[in-house]
Design goal:
322 residues, Quinone Oxidoreductase, Chain A, domain 1, 2 domains, 7-stranded mixed β-sheet, 10 helices, binds NADPH dihydro-nicotinamide-adenine-dinucleotide phosphate
Length: 322
C-alpha cells in the first residue's frame, strides 16, 4: 500500500511516499481501507519533532473508511462497517490497523470526507466549549484563528451556546469565513492590535474566556484580554511554543485561570469518545454544525498540504484522499 512516512524529523521534504505492506489487524484492532485522511496541525508538530514520535513513522492521526477485517477479540465491528476515528497513528495511507475501541460508526447521512473532517477538529471544538471552559449564554469569548479547522467549528459551537463571539484572523478572505461561521466581531490581528480592539469592543471589561491555538505570538495579549477570573484556554501553538510565562501574571492579571488541554484526555475512555463523537456527528447530520472542507489533496501531495497549512494558506479542513 501507499503511505506517507518520515524517517527523520524536519520540513515537509522529509515526507516520502513509501510502498509498505498492508498492516495486519492484531487482537483488538480492525483493518480499515481509508477513504479520507484528516490533516491536522498536530501532524506538523510530529513531523518537526516538537511532539516526539518513534521513527520511522507513518503520519496522520485521523481518518474514515471501511472495515476490511477484524482482529481476534473484536465483536462490535464487522467487515463493511463505515467507521471514523482520531488519535490512532498511520492514517496518511491506504490502510490502517486501528484499535477497535477508537472507532465510531458513521451515521448514514454523513459521507467519508465529512466524517474524517469531523473527528479531531469537531470533537476539539466540542470539548473546549462544553467542558474546558463551559460557555454560558451571555458570555463573551475570543477565538483566535477563527477561519481554521478548529476555529470555524469552535465559533459555531460557541454561538450555539449563546456566546458573543469575537474572532481573530489574518486576512479579509478569512474574515468572511469567520463571519459566515457566526462570529459577531472579526479582528484582523495581522493589522491591528487585538488586545486594544477587544478592550474597545467590551467597553474595557474584557472577555470571559480566550481560546488560543496560536501560542507564541498571541499568548500574553490573550491573557490581557481577560476579565478578572477569566480563563485562558491555551490549546495549541501554530506560531511556536509559549516560553515567556510566569504564573504570577495570573495574579496580577486578575486571578486568572490558565489551562492547556488536549483532546486525547477528553476522549480517553470509550464512553466519553462515544458521547462526544455522536453529539458532533448528530449536529452535522442535522445541519446544526457546518463543516468547511477547504481543500482535498491526493495522498501523494501530503507535503504540499503541510506547506500550505504552515504558510497559513488553508481554511477549514484539509483532507488527503488515498
Ligand atoms: P488551523 O486550520 O487553525 O491552521 C492554523 C492557523 O493558525 C492558520 O491558518 C493561521 O490562521 C493561524 N496561525 C497564526 N499564526 C500562525 C503561524 N505563525 N503559522 C501557522 N499558522 C498560524 O489548524 P488546526 O485547526 O489543525 O489546528 C489549530 C490549532 O489547534 C493548532 O495549534 C493545533 O495544534 C490545535 N489543536 C489542539 C488540540 C487540542 O486538543 N489541544 C486539538 C486540535 C487542534 P490565520 O492566518 O487566520 O492567523
Amino acid at each position: 500500500m501507499k503511505a506517507i512516512r518520515i524517517e527523520k524529523n524536519g520540513g515537509p521534504e522529509v515526507m516520502n511516499l513509501a510502498e509498505l505492506p498492508v498492516p495486519e489487524a492484531a487482537a483488538g484492532q480492525a483493518l480499515v481501507r481509508i477513504e479520507a485522511a484528516g490533516v491536522n496541525f498536530i501532524d506538523v508538530y510530529q513531523r518537526t519533532g516538537l511532539y516526539p514520535v518513534q521513527l520511522p513513522y507513518v503520519l496522520g492521526l485521523e481518518g474514515s473508511g471501511t472495515v476490511e477485517k477484524t482482529g481476534p477479540g473484536v465483536e462490535t465491528l464487522q467487515a463493511g462497517d463505515r467507521v471514523a476515528w482520531s488519535g490512532a497513528p498511520g492514517t496518511y495511507a491506504e490502510y490502517a490497523a486501528v484499535p477497535a475501541d477508537r472507532l465510531v460508526k458513521i451515521p448514514e447521512k454523513i459521507d467519508f470526507p465529512e466524517a474524517a473532517a469531523a473527528m479531531l477538529q469537531g470533537m476539539t471544538a466540542h470539548y473546549l466549549a462544553v467542558d474546558t471552559y463551559p460557555i454560558r449564554s451571555g458570555d463573551t469569548v475570543l477565538i483566535h484563528a477563527a477561519a481554521g479547522g478548529v476555529g470555524q467549528l469552535l465559533v459555531q459551537v460557541a454561538r450555539r451556546r449563546g456566546a458573543r463571539v469575537l474572532a481573530t484572523v489574518s486576512t479579509e478572505a478569512k474574515a468572511e469565513l469567520a463571519r459566515k461561521a457566526g462570529a459577531d466581531e472579526v479582528i484582523l490581528y495581522s493589522r491591528e492590535d487585538f488586545e486594544q480592539r477587544v478592550k474597545s469592543l467590551t467597553g474595557g471589561a474584557g472577555v470571559d474566556a480566550v481560546y488560543d491555538s496560536v501560542g507564541q505570538t498571541t499568548f500574553l495579549k490573550s491573557l490581557a484580554c481577560l476579565k478578572p477570573r477569566g480563563m485562558l484556554v491555551s490549546f495549541g501553538q501554530s506560531s511556536g511554543k509559549v516560553t515567556n510565562f510566569d504564573p504570577a501574571m495570573l495574579g496580577s492579571g486578575g486571578s486568572l485561570y490558565l489551562t492547556r488541554p488536549s483532546l486525547f484526555h477528553y476522549i480517553a475512555d470509550r464512553q466519553s469518545l462515544e458521547r462526544r463523537a455522536s453529539e458532533v456527528l448528530d449536529w452535522i447530520a442535522g445541519g446544526e454544525l457546518v463543516l468547511h472542507i477547504g481543500q482535498r489533496l491526493p495522498l501523494r501531495d501530503a507535503a504540499e498540504a503541510h506547506r500550505r497549512l504552515e504558510a497559513r494558506k488553508t481554511t477549514g479542513k484539509v483532507l488527503l484522499i488515498p
